[in-house]
Design brief:
About 45% of the residues lie in helices and about 20% in strands. With about 200 residues, it is an alpha/beta fold.
């Protein structure tokens, strides 16, 4: 109990762990990964972290959830706005199709501007990451990318293209991103309102 709120949590015991971990996600809620502590010890640790847990849960609830908007409002989140669109088939297929329609052209636009050409572009369902760049310079984007405002989609593309030149997040990487996307910090803040997870 946190005040008047009952917060359920799941305990997963794995004796190979060295420490106890508490993780929080929209999919699994509060999960305690336990090396082999007694239930009494686990409850005491969770109680000690109750304020942190409550804040994390509140933060997750504030994020725009694609499935929640669709199920509760019968609308889809598209380019940062809620739209009334009839969807035939699975929601995730709708987003993947829309992402595949717009992203390659935007990647080509920025690749030419930045003179950084990716080897390949793919889309996949993700829970945390908007995009990635492999060691082979293959770009991968979340299939729910089009839920974001266009400026944020372009920022993610610039971010991943920059990894072709800089395989890290050090100062030179961010300077390269800022060169092509001066307002990238604004986009970083906007992204905190969204989740890649469908």
């Amino acid at each position: 109990m946190y005040g008047d709120t009952k917060i359920p949590y799941t305990i997963i015991t794995n004796k190979r762990l060295k420490n106890l971990y508490i993780t929080i996600s929209q999919t699994y809620g509060v999960v305690v990964k336990n090396p082999n502590y007694s239930l009494k010890s686990i409850h005491a640790i969770v109680k000690k972290r109750e304020s942190w847990i409550a804040k994390k849960l509140q933060y997750l609830n504030l994020k725009k959830s694609i499935s929640k908007i669709y199920e509760e409002e019968n609308r889809v989140l598209l380019y940062g706005k809620k739209e009334s669109i009839l969807i035939e088939g699975k929601l995730e297929n709708f987003y993947k199709q829309k992402s595949q329609e717009i992203t390659p052209a935007l990647v080509e636009k920025w690749a030419l501007k930045m003179n950084l050409i990716p080897l390949k572009i793919t889309f996949r369902k993700t829970k945390r990451r908007w995009g990635s760049c492999s060691a082979k310079n293959e770009l991968s984007f979340t299939s729910s990318l089009v839920q974001l405002p266009i400026e944020c989609i372009e920022y993610i593309i610039v971010h991943e293209l920059s990894h072709i030149k800089h395989k890290h997040h050090q100062k030179s990487f961010w300077q390269h991103v800022e060169k092509f996307m001066p307002n990238f910090k604004k986009c970083e803040q906007i992204l905190k309102e969204y989740s890649p997870q469908i």
